Amino acid sequence: MKAIRVALSLFVLTATAALAQSAAQKSFDQLKSLTGSWEGKTSQGKPLNVSFRDTAGGSALMSEIHGMGQEDMITMFHLDGPNRLLMTHYCGAGNQPRMTATASPDGKTITFDFLDATNLATPDAGHMQRVVIAILDANHHTEDWTFATQGKELKQFFDLKRSELAQK
């Protein structure tokens, strides 16, 4: 009888550990729910298209931003171990800032803050500093981008709806 209790306890502990997800994994799964095409407007009212695509066997999520002038931009999201979600933004400014994620208590807002960057000439050279993605529902999300340059911040806000819904 004691052996059965021990075995049952080990099974429950193993099953619980397998079902538990880190905050980083939950945030990554939330971002993956954005897979597809999105339409919206920039802060200046210009049309914008954003797409999200699962890649690398599900280990990365790629976002492509079209409509920001001549430079389209790509952002890659991925886990770095079980407890850290990173993004790398391939910017029209020619550098690649990396940012780490934190999630709001309800899990619907994910904030990425600057960690470091490649190809950044000086620390005050222009680069993306922060990105806040708010998933309002399955068909509506916002992205709030902050670009830092020479001690100043420039903001760009995108209000996006799934492409098939934006046309209705």
Description:
The protein is of the alpha+beta class and 168 residues long. The protein has three helices and ten strands; from the N terminus they run H-H-E-E-E-E-E-E-E-E-E-E-H. It has helices spanning 2-19, 23-32, 163-166, and strands spanning 36-41, 47-55, 60-66, 73-79, 85-90, 96-103, 109-118, 127-137, 140-149, 152-162. It has a ten-stranded antiparallel beta barrel. Strand 2 and strand 3 (60-66) form a beta hairpin. The longest helix has 18 residues, at 2-19. The chain is globular, with a radius of gyration of 19 Å. The relative contact order is 0.16. The model is unreliable at 6-19 (pLDDT under 50).
Structure summarized in a few sentences:
The protein is an alpha+beta fold.
Question: How would the blueprint of this fold be written?
Answer:
Elements: H1 2-19, H2 23-32, E1 36-41, E2 47-55, E3 60-66, E4 73-79, E5 85-90, E6 96-103, E7 109-118, E8 127-137, E9 140-149, E10 152-162, H3 163-166
Antiparallel strand pairs: 1-2, 1-10, 2-3, 3-4, 4-5, 5-6, 6-7, 7-8, 8-9, 9-10
